[in-house]
């Protein structure tokens, strides 16, 4: 694909830029950073990467450099420290969310329209009467959706409503039952508890009309989702996540140490990664959420991740940032289901 050739270069350049900005501020900016509520937990996440790399080498003879490269997504946690050092205004971050989500939606729709031609080097398949494009970054679209939902009812500005609707369309085109159900349920919860909604009957009526309209416009996709669910039940198949859990936890973990430190992240250039790629068509680590992270990184990583979620829930935020709590609820549901 066109963008696939440059994706790894962009990732590396982005990580280098983020790290470089952090180092510059540490060296030259002597003012203390913003209070960092999650610093210790993120430090533990970084530490947990080291023993998991060792396990990948010892158990599966995977090269350390391959593992280090494959787990590069975790290194972007350094952005947390960079933002605190640079003392970013939260409003500026929200603008960045709008821009990223707009770019994501445009790329997704272009790829959807031109399929089977591949613009983006990601997994794409036709399933449930839709083209499911597994682009990284959907989590940020969900975050922006809740941000726009809150801002629409606070300001009644149409630009927020437009981005909400387009984001919902992307969620439907993805064909993911859990994502659609979680977003709809949390949206309804927001409408129930929001203090900005004066006429709840009118809002519920409009939401009902919107849901009916979306189901009507994308009835083929919803029928595909329902057919997939019914077919699974009729064939007596276990939930795909349960089957994936059983497979990974009975065919790997060659050492008791792996239950503590994980197996490491597989790379396609190693026999370990190739064996995982062979089975990934049926069972994907992504499908098992937190258990998939435990499989790769071990106990320390999972405990720290849970600690971040709990701390985020109990940390008080001002009313304008309440959308973060709704987003966090969706993230929690996604890693548990």
Report on this structure:
The structure is a single chain. The protein has 337 residues and is an all-alpha fold. The protein is 72% helix and 2% strand. The protein contains 17 helices and two strands. Helix 9 packs antiparallel against helix 17 (323-336). It is globular and about 60 Å long. The mean pLDDT is 82.
In brief:
By secondary structure, the chain is mainly α. The protein has helices at residues 4-28, 39-60, 64-70, 72-75, 78-86, 90-114, 138-155, 158-174, 177-193, 200-217, 219-234, 240-251, 258-261, 271-280, 289-297, 299-314, 323-336; strands at 124-127, 130-133. It is globular and about 60 Å long.
Classify the beta-strand content into a percent band.
under 5%
Helix content: over 70%
Helix-strand makeup class = mainly alpha
Q: H/E order of the elements?
A: HHHHHHEEHHHHHHHHHHH
What global shape is seen?
A: globular
Gap between N and C termini: 32 Å
Radius of gyration: 21 Å
Tally of helical runs: 17
State the low-pLDDT regions, or none. none
Biggest sheet: strands side by side, in what order?
Answer: 1-2
What is the overall pLDDT average?
A: 82
Number of strands: 2
Largest sheet: 2 strands, antiparallel
């Amino acid at each position: 694909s066109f963008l696939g050739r440059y994706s790894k270069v962009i990732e590396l350049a982005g990580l280098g830029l983020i790290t470089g900005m952090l180092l510059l501020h540490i060296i030259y900016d002597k003012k203390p950073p913003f209070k960092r509520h999650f610093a210790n937990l993120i430090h533990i996440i970084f530490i947990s990467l080291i023993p998991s790399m060792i396990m990948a080498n010892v158990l599966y003879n995977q090269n350390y450099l391959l593992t280090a490269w494959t787990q590069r997504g975790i290194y972007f946690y350094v952005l947390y420290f960079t933002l605190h050092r640079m003392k970013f205004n939260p409003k500026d971050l929200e603008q960045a969310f709008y821009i990223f989500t707009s770019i994501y939606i445009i790329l997704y729709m272009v790829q959807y329209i031109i399929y089977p031609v591949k613009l983006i080097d990601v997994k794409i398949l036709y399933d449930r009467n839709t083209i499911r494009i597994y682009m990284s970054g959907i989590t940020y679209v969900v975050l922006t959706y809740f941000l726009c939902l809150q801002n629409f009812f606070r300001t009644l500005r149409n630009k927020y409503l437009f981005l909400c609707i387009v984001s919902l369309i992307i969620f439907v085109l993805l064909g993911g039952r859990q994502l659609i159900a979680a977003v709809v349920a949390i949206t309804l919860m927001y409408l129930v508890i929001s203090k900005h909604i004066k006429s709840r009957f009118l809002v519920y009526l409009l939401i009902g009309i919107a849901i009916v309209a979306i189901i009507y416009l994308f009835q083929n996709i919803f029928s595909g989702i329902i057919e997939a669910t019914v077919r699974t039940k009729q064939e007596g198949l276990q939930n795909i996540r349960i089957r994936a859990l059983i497979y990974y936890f009975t065919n790997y973990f060659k050492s008791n140490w792996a239950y503590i430190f994980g197996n490491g992240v597989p790379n396609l250039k190693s026999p370990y990664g190739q064996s995982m790629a062979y089975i990934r068509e049926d069972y994907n680590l992504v499908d098992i959420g937190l258990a998939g992270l435990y499989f790769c990184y071990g106990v320390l990583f999972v405990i720290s991740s849970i600690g971040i979620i709990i701390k985020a829930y109990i940390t008080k935020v001002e009313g304008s940032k309440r959308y973060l709590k709704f987003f966090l609820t969706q993230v929690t549901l996604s890693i548990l289901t």
